[in-house]
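User: Hi! I have a protein structure encoded as tokens and I'd like to know what sequence might fold into it. I'm fairly new to this, so please keep things simple.
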């Protein structure tokens, strides 16, 4: 039987004659940090102080022991090397590698002694390749498009420039005889209610030997097949298989598959994975509105409630299985049902995908190409196909994976960002996205759809980012417009859009120790990577609020409110237009370090107000006030499997708390549909002093994630016709009481956008909800975890809300 032994101890990191202990898996930066040799690049201006690390050569060393095992072959296996390295054993060259996204196997039979992995600077490799293939344009000046490495190592508009090197995934020694399982490619389908697992098996041999068989087991079903030549195909059928569903649509049934390679009935090697039976399609058919982009799972058409995922740490080896699960659990708890793995990062890990399988989170996986023209010459072309083949097969077992996407924004960049003229006919990646990658997916994983890029309209006959066709990225709004402009169009699928806000207060205090915080203080500016990021924040704020002068706490609160408002404006509008619009993917769920960014969860894992707003926006039932043909309507979005029936109560109110008009309407919305109720003309607010409240009293949906709002047990929408800076809010009056694990606020006036910043009570504290608007006489109880000594005065000091214009 194949024996595998981890090779994760006894490593040393060497540089210019100096040696220090190394942790494998890991990277140079984490080893230097552990040794106290560099400052923490996440704190203050530390990033700049460690820039030299990425421009040096580094060598990892250990000793490969001689272990008599009786096996015929011994392999040294690296699951991931970052990125350009030379591997030697006892002075003998084993190989040279140049791709972070691949694994490597070397025959070391009969060898032992000093093992060395010498990493060349990624900058040096990138410049050498650029010198060979010629210059290519990109969104950033760093040379990330010239080597197969996580692009955001070189910095992004939310990430630091920390160019890593190291043995970033596990390394082991495998000893085996006769044959081993070289590759197992599972095609998992459903045929007329029967689950089918078809395993395509590649076998590596030490010698030609008859009597090789494979046996596959799925549950209590077992099937055998003979190995002919270098492989075999074995098909297992599971009658009446329980289906795997995305969260909110059914359960996440998972079946263990075990494949055993035998010789004369003696087991040689075993492969185990979990699979789920489901059918996934992408409906990209043409209609009267353009070209759709709708996910269909097990015949059910979905409005995808998505978030974009970036690497959760700029040093990926630090992201543990537990951290993946915690972050993805946060996504699921916010009502998310789709996670897009963005193309400037990684093919994500088994731990990531296992969590998504269990949580019912659909995964859209980009191939790692982002925001640049990528050369198609060697040595890159061969590496691209090799990594694609390996990772497609590696991730195929996971039912959560529903889409392969060729790239992020490169087709759009070619057309709109001046690349076509600059390239002058040079290669730029089109051959990957429209040639190599769809061919690899069609050959290896025909059970899943492929799309050439995001955004992509499906054809060069249309603009790549045409909102009427395929996927659309909506960035003009953040860059140049007010977020109310989201209401100006109905894209078929919004794959990226977002609004910035700073991280939580405790995160800033940790990341910028000793700094007097201000929007433009040195540390705040260093931890703002977007082009004119603060300028866009300020302009976006000024359109809606009176921008506070020299009051950082107020600025911090209002920018977070504005982020939640902006994203809510887009999602409410687009969800109300289902099924024309079939999904939104917010940029972005997470951060890789403490930074002002578009994230809902900051770099320390703290949830911004946007996170809690997503829980409302992505609930199975959403009530929102929209405009149709110059009139107000209440849109009741029902993504449940049951109809939504109840009473819709409309109130026209003044900010002083007076009800100036009311009406009740019967609400009936069919399953998976949107219902519109016109607001009577006499209830539409007139001027900045009035607003509309819509409440839907309705039973809680079975298995849904709808949550009650203050003022009732159903859904609520509050509509103000004017920007906040024009609204004569009363001075907020409310009472605060505390109990273990709870803060209760009772409003005496209108209290708009009440927010408890729990991290101000204790850095480890967390509130269970974000922004809430209370009408006079209403109360809300906010659950608080991690606050050991409740105190009403401290709670009041941590509460923020809208105040009268100054």
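Assistant: Happy to help. Inverse folding works backwards from shape to sequence: for each of the 806 positions I chose a residue that suits the local structure. Here it is:
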């Amino acid at each position: 039987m194949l024996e595998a032994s981890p090779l994760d101890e006894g490593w040393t990191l060497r540089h210019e004659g100096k040696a220090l202990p190394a942790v494998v898996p890991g990277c140079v930066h984490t080893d230097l940090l552990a040794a106290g040799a560099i400052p923490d690049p996440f704190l203050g201006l530390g990033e700049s102080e460690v820039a030299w690390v990425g421009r040096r050569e580094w060598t990892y060393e250990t000793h490969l022991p001689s272990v008599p095992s009786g096996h015929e072959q011994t392999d040294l296996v690296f699951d991931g090397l970052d990125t350009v390295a030379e591997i030697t054993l006892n002075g003998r060259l084993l190989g040279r590698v140049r791709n972070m996204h691949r694994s490597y196997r070397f025959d070391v039979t009969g060898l032992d002694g000093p093992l060395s992995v010498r990493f060349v600077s990624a900058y040096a490799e990138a410049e050498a390749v650029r010198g060979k293939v010629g210059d290519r344009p990109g969104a950033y000046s760093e040379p990330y498009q010239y080597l197969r490495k996580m692009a955001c190592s070189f910095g992004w508009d939310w990430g630091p420039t920390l160019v890593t090197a190291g043995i970033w995934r596990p390394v082991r020694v495998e000893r085996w005889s006769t044959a081993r399982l070289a590759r197992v490619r599972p095609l998992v389908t459903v045929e007329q209610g029967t689950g089918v697992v078809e395993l395509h098996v590649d076998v590596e041999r030490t010698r030609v030997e008859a009597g090789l068989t494979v046996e596959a087991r799925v549950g209590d079903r077992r099937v055998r097949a003979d190995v002919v030549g270098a492989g075999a195909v074995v098909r297992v059928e599971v009658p009446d298989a329980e289906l795997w569903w995305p969260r909110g649509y059914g359960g996440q049934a998972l079946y263990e598959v075990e494949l055993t390679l035998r010789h004369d009935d003696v087991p040689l090697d075993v492969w185990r994975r979990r699979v789920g039976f489901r059918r996934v399609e992408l409906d990209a058919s043409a209609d009267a509105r353009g070209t759709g982009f709708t996910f269909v799972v097990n015949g059910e058409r979905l409005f995808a409630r998505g978030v974009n995922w970036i690497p959760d740490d700029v040093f990926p080896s630090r992201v543990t299985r537990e951290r993946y699960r915690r972050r993805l659990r946060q996504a699921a708890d916010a009502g998310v049902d789709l996670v897009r793995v963005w193309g400037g990062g990684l093919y994500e890990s088994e731990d990531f995908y296992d969590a998504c399988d269990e949580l019912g989170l659909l995964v859209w996986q980009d191939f790692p190409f982002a925001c640049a023209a990528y050369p198609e010459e060697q040595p890159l072309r061969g590496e691209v196909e090799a990594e694609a083949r390996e990772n497609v097969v590696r991730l195929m077992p996971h039912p959560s994976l529903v889409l392969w996407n060729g790239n992020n924004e490169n087709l759009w960049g070619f057309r709109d960002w001046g690349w076509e003229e600059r390239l002058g006919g040079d290669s730029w990646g089109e051959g990957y996205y429209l040639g190599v990658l769809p061919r690899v997916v069609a050959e290896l994983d025909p059970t899943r759809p492929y799309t050439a890029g995001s955004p992509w309209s499906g054809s060069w006959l249309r603009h790549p980012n045409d909102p009427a066709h395929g996927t659309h990225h909506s960035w003009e709004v953040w860059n140049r417009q007010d977020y109310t402009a989201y209401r100006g169009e109905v894209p078929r699928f919004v794959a990226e859009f977002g609004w910035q806000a700073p991280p939580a207060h405790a995160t800033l205090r940790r990341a910028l120790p000793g700094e007097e915080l201000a929007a433009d203080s040195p540390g705040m500016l260093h931890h703002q990577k977007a082009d004119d990021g603060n300028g866009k924040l300020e302009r976006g704020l000024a359109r809606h609020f009176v921008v506070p002068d020299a009051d950082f706490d107020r600025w911090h609160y209002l920018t977070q409110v504005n982020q939640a408002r902006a994203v809510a404006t887009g999602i409410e509008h687009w969800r109300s237009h289902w099924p024309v619009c079939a999904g939104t993917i917010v940029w972005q769920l997470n951060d890789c370090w403490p930074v002002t960014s578009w994230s809902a969860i900051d770099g320390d894992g703290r949830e911004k107000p946007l996170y809690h707003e997503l829980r409302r926006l992505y609930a199975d039932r959403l009530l929102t006030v929209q405009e149709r043909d110059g009139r107000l309507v209440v849109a009741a979005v029902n993504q449940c499997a049951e109809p939504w029936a109840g009473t819709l109560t409309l109130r026209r109110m003044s900010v002083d708390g007076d009800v100036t008009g009311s009406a009740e309407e019967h609400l009936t919305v069919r399953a998976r549909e949107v219902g519109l109720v016109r607001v009577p003309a006499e209830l539409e607010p007139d001027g900045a002093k009035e607003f509309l409240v819509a409440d839907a009293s309705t039973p809680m949906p079975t298995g849904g994630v709808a949550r009650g709002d203050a003022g009732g047990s159903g859904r609520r929408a509050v509509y103000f016709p004017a920007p906040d800076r024009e609204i004569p809010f009363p001075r907020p009056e409310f009472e605060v009481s505390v109990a273990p694990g709870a803060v209760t606020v009772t409003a005496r006036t209108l209290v708009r956008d009440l927010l408890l910043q729990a991290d101000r009570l204790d850095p480890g504290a967390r509130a269970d909800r974000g922004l809430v608007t209370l009408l006079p006489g209403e109360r809300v109880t906010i659950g608080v975890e991690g606050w050991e000594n409740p105190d009403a005065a401290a709670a009041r000091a941590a509460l923020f809300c809208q105040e009268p214009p100054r």
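A useful reference point when you look it over: The chain has a mean pLDDT of 95. Feel free to ask if any position seems puzzling.
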